[in-house]
Amino acid sequence: MVKEESICTVCGYIGFSKKVTKGSFLMEVALWILFLLPGIIYSIWRLTSRYDACPKCKNASLIPVNSPKGQELLKNQQT
To answer: Nearest to residue 60, comparing CAs of 19, 32, 3, 29?
Structure first.
C-alpha cells in the first residue's frame, strides 16, 4: 500500500500521515504487571483505536491532496 500525500484541514500541514495510538504505553505496562485481564483489554483497545493523523497537530482530519477539497485547500494556502 502506497501512502499518498495529504493536507490537514485544521493546521494546513502538507505531507504524509503518522499512525497514532490512543492511550499510554506506561499505563499498558503497569496493567500487564499488576493485573493480567485489564492489561489484555487495554492492549486490545489501544491496538484497535489506532488511526492516521497529522504529525503536526495530531488531528485525524487529513484529506488527499489530489482530491477536489484538497486542491481547494492547497490553492487557498498558496495565496
So the answer is: 19
Distance in angstroms (rounded) separating the CA atoms of residues 42 and 61: 25
For residue 76, what is the enclosing H or E element?
helix 68-78
Tell me the CB-side half-sphere exposure of residue 9, using CA atoms within 13 A. Answer: 11
Query: Cα–Cα distance between 28 and 43 in angstroms, integer?
Result: 7
Q: pTM score, two decimals?
A: 0.66
- Residue where the block lists cell 490512543: 22
Number of neighbouring beta carbons within 10 Å of residue 54 = 24
Overall average pLDDT of the 43-63 stretch: 91
Single-letter residue type at 41? I
